[in-house]
Design brief:
Layout: H1 5-11, H2 47-51, H3 59-75, H4 82-99, H5 109-139, H6 146-157, H7 164-185, E1 196-197, E2 200-201, H8 213-237, H9 242-271, E3 278-280, E4 290-292, H10 295-298, H11 310-320, H12 327-351, H13 358-366, H14 375-391, H15 400-404, E5 407-410, H16 413-416, E6 427-430, H17 439-448, H18 451-455, H19 458-461, H20 466-473, H21 486-502, H22 509-533, H23 539-549, H24 554-565, H25 573-591, H26 599-609, H27 614-621
Parallel strand pairs: 5-6
Antiparallel strand pairs: 1-2, 3-4
Helix pairs in contact: 3-4, 4-5, 5-11, 6-8, 7-9, 8-9, 12-13, 12-22, 21-25, 22-23, 22-25, 23-24, 25-27
């Protein structure tokens, strides 16, 4: 019988855990990362091929747009201020109008692709501003002063000569408004008996604004941002302009404290988040004060609120991603993919002598973690194993420098609470326990990052996954980085996971279970993320769903849901892993299985073409007819090859 996590932990002292797996995975036994030729010319490409490489006629147009957009974002740097909103909307509208003046039919396929991508990007930016207008109206009862406060920074960027005394009055006025709003949200003071005061009717208390927890949470986050922006404005003048400091220092300090208290009140009274605990400040043993724990330190224990965008919002985001399916249709696709993973997990469980009890098999796999301090060695060896496996096949070009230039760092404990698994790219960030974690946190991190789970994702993060993607996008069609989408980068890394499954990279039942854990996870991400934004699933229900459907530790599931809904990711980001991977899988069947392209030519073309919705990758590689509105809808799910089951023993 498989013991619980706590039982395993209490039975064995954490820092004396025996190594429960072979010394090195996959028979690889290096003591360092793979070495590369010392000849520097080995990493230099054939420059003639780069010189003659064909590019889009609109490459400079897209690059100019990206540079202009970045310049305006730096100039109008008060987030969501009146001036920023007006200028960016005008900019996007003007660019779209000017783009329409181009002779579309005279462009090459690559030029048409860039036209469609840029127009799609501009339309989406305008749609997001429309969405922000609606959300701003929802928080206006709590933040009616927002525009006036943000306009201070707009005026500074306009280089308007400061009127110190007028600025002080503005700060004082803002403080009065903020304090009055906070008072409305706090409990009413006890009233003496009687309905009148000195014979006059007692004044009626103004009712507090009525908003949902979601809107309240959004307002509190925006108030933090406003407070920061006003602080930037104040520090620009303070000390440099003596008259400003004389007039504005005290009013600013009062406003800053008023906004801090008001944000706390919103979180406490509207959202239901208890304030961070007060801890003793350094040196407080002798007359020292007390300090409130930092917001980011307390955030991991706060309730997960999120901000669902609804069916219309999802439809807009999916149009931008060129996904011609409804959210409900995508959930059905995810459930079909999950059914395959579940059947394969039961098959692996039977090989381990556990019948159909796939959860018991996953528990057995998770208990094969490496001892503390050894996770970097494990990740190094898994990276070497994947590199060797790809080097033996003609699937994709991995330049020598791309195999050499990645780095490894350890992830901080705070970061691990919302990113419980390692992250990758040019630097792979390893998630594993540190001595600052609690015992439960240590064990859950070790079990969740066991060798078999890690084996299925190291190449997802490094080569040919995120690291190779970054390497190529920095060197080919660099103008297209503005069109970055998780359907391309996350979908491509997930595609490689499915690709290697089909080519028997995972042979043992333990390694197959590790790969299936992630495949289940990506199916579940589609279901819980889209269901949340449709209003069909709460964050708490999403956690329970992941715990039931995916073999993650509960703390890891909570971290997964927290980062999915805390605003760090776009609403359909989590769905993009599996959906982008399936799109590439369908495109591979269309172009490579039919012998129209080789493996290497296909994979290199995807990487070197630059990031974009996968439908546009298909338009480029399959020469799909394009109009100004793009390509005809691509119903990729109807063309998917069946997943390859592992042969039964």
């Amino acid at each position: 019988m498989i013991r619980s996590s706590r039982a395993v932990f209490t039975a064995v002292s954490l820092w004396c855990v025996p190594l429960l797996l072979p010394a090195q995975p996959g028979g690889v036994k290096p003591t360092t990362r793979q070495q590369f030729p010392v000849d520097p010319s080995a990493g230099v490409p054939a420059l003639g091929a780069l010189v003659s490489a064909r590019t889009s006629e609109l490459a400079e147009v897209v690059a100019r747009f990206a540079a202009d957009q970045q310049g305006l974002q730096r100039r109008y740097d008060a987030p969501d201020s009146p001036a920023q909103r007006a200028r960016i909307r005008a900019f996007s509208s003007a660019w779209r109008a000017r783009l329409g003046e181009l002779a579309f039919d005279r462009l090459s396929q690559e030029g048409k692709a860039d036209y469609v991508l840029l127009d799609n990007h501009l339309r989406y930016q305008l749609a997001l501003m429309d969405r922000a207008d609606v959300q701003r109206a929802e928080v206006q009862p709590l933040l009616p002063f927002a525009d006036r406060a943000l306009a201070l920074q707009d005026a500074r960027r306009d280089l308007t000569t400061i009127d110190a005394q007028a600025s002080a009055r503005t700060l004082a006025d803002l403080t009065r408004v903020v304090d009055s709003l906070r008072t409305l949200l706090e409990p009413a003071p006890a009233r003496p008996s009687g309905d009148s005061v000195n014979g006059a009717p007692r004044p009626t208390r103004v009712p507090a604004p009525k908003v949902s927890r979601t809107v309240g949470n959004r307002a509190a986050e925006q108030l933090d941002q406003i407070r920061n922006t006003v602080g930037v404005w104040y520090r620009y003048y303070n000390g440099y302009d003596p008259l400003f400091s004389w007039w504005a220092t005290n009013p600013y300090q009062k406003l800053d404290e008023a906004m801090r208290r008001y944000a706390t009140t919103i979180r406490t009274r509207v959202v239901g988040i208890q304030p961070a605990p007060v801890v003793a400040a350094a040196g407080s043993g002798s007359g020292g004060g007390a300090a409130q724990a930092p917001r980011n330190a307390a955030a991991a224990n706060e309730p997960i609120i999120g901000d669902p965008i609804g069916a219309d919002g999802l439809a807009a985001d999916l149009r931008h991603a060129m996904i011609p399916y409804t959210a409900d249709e995508l959930i059905a696709i995810a459930e079909r993919e999950y059914a395959f993973s579940l059947a394969e997990a039961k098959k692996a469980a039977r090989e381990l002598g556990l019948g159909d009890d796939w959860k018991a098999a996953m528990e057995q796999v998770k208990n094969k973690y490496v001892e503390p301090g050894k996770q970097p060695d494990l990740i190094r060896d898994l990276a070497n194993e994947a590199d060797t496996f790809f080097a033996a096949h003609d699937w994709v070009t991995i330049p020598a420098l791309a195999r050499e230039d990645w780095r490894m760092e350890m992830m901080a404990p705070e970061r691990q609470r919302v990113s419980p698994f390692f992250l990758g790219g040019e630097t792979i960030q390893v998630s594993y326990p540190t001595d600052a974690m609690t015992d439960d946190e240590k064990l859950m991190s070790m079990r969740g990052n066991n060798p078999h789970f890690s084996r299925a994702t190291v190449f997802h993060e490094l080569n040919p996954g995120h690291h190779l993607q970054g390497f190529m996008t920095a060197r080919y069609n660099t103008h297209r980085r503005v069109f970055s989408t998780p359907f391309w980068n996350e979908g491509q890394s997930l595609y490689w996971e499915m690709f290697l499954w089909d080519r028997d990279f995972h042979v043992t039942p333990e390694d197959r279970l590790g790969a299936l854990a992630w495949r289940m996870h990506r199916s579940a991400r589609i279901v819980f993320s889209l269901s949340f934004h449709l209003g069909k699933m709460t964050p708490e229900q999403a956690i329970e769903y992941v715990v039931d459907k995916v073999p993650f530790e509960r703390a890891n599931a909570e971290g997964e849901i927290r980062r999915s809904f805390n605003g760090s990711y776009s609403p359909i980001y989590q769905a993009a892993y599996m959906l982008g991977g399936l799109q590439l899988r369908a495109l591979y069947a269309e172009l490579v299985t039919t012998k129209r392209m080789t493996d290497r030519a296909f994979h290199d073309a995807v990487l070197q073409g630059g990031p974009m919705p996968i439908a546009m990758v298909r338009a480029r590689l399959a020469n799909v007819p394009l109009t100004r509105d793009g390509a005809a809808p691509w119903r990729f799910a109807e063309r998917l090859p069946a997943p390859r089951p592992f042969p039964s023993k």
